[in-house]
Amino acid sequence: MNGWHLVEQVAQACFDHKIELVFYPGALTPEGDLGEFDPYNGHLVVAAKDPDWLYVLAHEMGHLEQWATNHPTWYPERNDFMTLSLWLKRKQEYDGRAFVHAVRRVQRCEHFAEKYALQLLRKYDHPDVSRYCQMANFGLWRFEHLRQTRSWIDQTDERVAKMPKRLISTARAIKLPTGWG
User: Which H or E run includes 23?
Assistant: First the structure.
């Protein structure tokens, strides 16, 4: 696998869309994430010291693709993440049904990015797409855990290893038991 071909594709897409590509020299970005695509501030950031930085880069490229093509899973994403953030910090309460819909929209947004990333990893012959799928599945399930418990659950190797090795649908992700991870 030549990961640099994937990096070149992302760099070209960023250049084409006037997005700054930043490899942050830490295990987390300044916002405390592994990566972030923010077209409103014009950057795609990846924590370069994270061992899975190439997976993260592919995932964030999926979000760039959503935004660049005006994919319907992108539009609600920013407001829905704000809804989750305010609710998690207990700064806002939401009607149950509306909140569940916000969580589902975030899951659909993330699922699109996971599918896109998986296509990129396969295109460039990444040797361990099953591990990426497990990490992606954990990420999708994590939102359901958040909705039910109002707390984030850390991604650990042990929890990721319990996940299916093929990318699952958001419908399947929400059916995994909360205490399962």
Answer: strand 20-24
